[in-house]
Every structure is written in structure tokens, then in C-alpha cells.
Design brief:
The complex is a heterodimer of chains A (111) and B (116). Chain A has 111 residues and is mainly β. Helices cover 0% and strands 51% of the residues of chain A. Chain A has a five-stranded antiparallel beta sheet with strand order 1-3-8-7-6, with no helix packed on it. In chain A, strands 2-10-9-4-5 form a five-stranded mixed beta sheet, with no helix packed on it. The termini of chain B are far apart. The chains are: A mainly beta (111), B mainly beta (116).
Chain lengths: 111, 116
């Protein structure tokens, strides 16, 4: 079955610094890798995804890096702001089963 | 606006009572899901439905029931058999949207259930 882990359950970052949230996965057959952001008391929101044939994708202030060799991906947030404080989940998508979510990483931004 | 609507946002249940959480989506998605989230924890799958009139148990289905009579609706009933129902419940659907994959899941805003 799928297993998804996160290297750092909590991450504290100074406002303005860059944040890096890591995620390891086990299913090499995943076609997409999706990142979600969950603010306190709300449902997770889609942030960005990356297809398995890519190793980098950039969005607005966020960059996803995918290393299929070691089954690892990361979400980088540039110039972290207080509004970035949330729990971040990664989810490999193999297309056939409900997504499996990791426990998540809590990002705390220090003003 | 298209989205997933859960109601109520807050619900209190007395021990021994059944309660039903509503979930409606107007995204025209075929698949719908219910997840449970305990404080400081990840998401655990309760039930999911890939098509109308069909649904499958997830990892923690005991004490819960669902129905899928319409594509837009996927209500979850928390029965008295669920011994520890206090949690945050998230409904979701998957299909075409912001993500490139048609399997991307989109969530509602959640419902808080508390046993009193």
C-alpha cells in the first residue's frame, strides 16, 4: 500500500525567510504529487501539483521539487509571510485510489 | 461559485444519538469522500463513493454510514456505535479543477462534531 511520510512535523521560520517542507513517498507509480495547505479550522486547499515527468514546478512564491530517484519531494515557499502559517500535506496521486495524505507539517511563521 | 458545502459547521451530539452531516457539491465531480481529522493529526478516510448508488468503506468506517442517491450529495451519519465521534469531519470530491489530475481532491470547510 501507499505510505507517505514527512521529515519534519513542525517547522518554525522567521518572516521573510524561505521555508522548505519535505515529503517522502513509497509508491513509484504515482503520476502526480499534490500539495495542500490547511489553515486552522478550515479544510485543506489545493496549492500546486507536479507531474511525475517533471522535477521542478514553480507557482506564485512556491516551488515544488521532485526527486524520483529517492522518492522525495519538497515545497519551497519564498519570503514566508504570517499568512503562510498552516499545516501542509503532500499527496501522491496514482490515479486509481483515494489520495493518501501524510500527517502533515505545521509551519509557524515568526514575526 | 462552484464548491463543496458542508453543514452544519458546528454540531453537538448527545451520547446514544445519531447525527447526519450534510455535504453538497456543484463541481460535477463523480467521486466524493469523507475524512475524519483529530486534533494535531492527519486525515483518515471514512467512506468514499466513486459513482451514484455505490460507496466503499475507508480505513475507519465502523460506526459511520453514508448514502449516495444523487451525484451532488454525500451525507454522513455518525451513529451511536461510534464510541469516540468528537472530531473535525471533512467532505471532499475529486475531478477536474485547479489540478492537472482528474483525481485531485477538493475539500469543504469541515464540520466540527462534539459529543456532550
Amino acid at each position: 500500500g501507499e505510505s507517505v511520510g514527512l521529515h519534519l512535523p513542525t517547522l518554525s521560520v522567521q518572516e521573510g525567510d524561505n521555508s522548505i517542507i519535505n515529503c517522502a513517498y513509497s509508491n513509484s507509480a504515482s503520476d502526480y504529487f499534490i500539495w495542500y495547505k490547511q489553515e486552522s479550522g478550515k479544510g485543506p486547499q489545493f496549492i500546486i501539483d507536479i507531474r511525475s515527468n517533471m522535477d521542478k514546478r514553480q507557482g506564485q512564491r512556491v516551488t515544488v521539487l521532485l526527486n524520483k530517484t529517492v522518492k522525495h519531494l519538497s515545497l519551497q515557499i519564498a519570503a514566508t509571510q504570517p499568512g503562510d502559517s498552516a499545516v501542509y500535506f503532500c499527496a501522491p496521486d496514482s490515479g486509481n485510489t483515494p489520495l493518501v495524505f501524510g500527517k502533515g507539517t505545521r509551519l509557524s511563521v515568526i514575526a | 461559485d462552484g464548491g463543496i458545502t458542508q453543514s452544519p459547521k458546528y454540531l453537538f451530539r448527545k451520547e446514544g444519538q445519531n447525527v447526519t452531516l450534510s455535504c453538497e457539491q456543484n463541481l460535477n465531480h463523480d467521486a466524493m469522500y469523507w475524512y475524519r481529522q483529530d486534533p494535531g493529526q492527519g486525515l483518515r478516510l471514512i467512506y468514499y463513493s466513486q459513482i451514484v448508488n455505490d460507496f466503499q468503506k475507508g480505513d475507519i468506517a465502523e460506526g459511520y454510514s453514508v448514502s449516495r442517491e444523487k451525484k451532488e450529495s454525500f451525507p454522513l451519519t455518525v451513529t451511536s456505535a461510534q464510541k469516540n465521534p468528537t472530531a473535525f469531519y471533512l467532505c471532499a470530491s475529486s475531478g477536474r479543477g485547479q489540478g492537472a489530475s482528474g483525481n485531485t481532491i477538493y475539500f469543504g470547510e469541515g464540520s466540527w462534531l462534539t459529543v456532550v
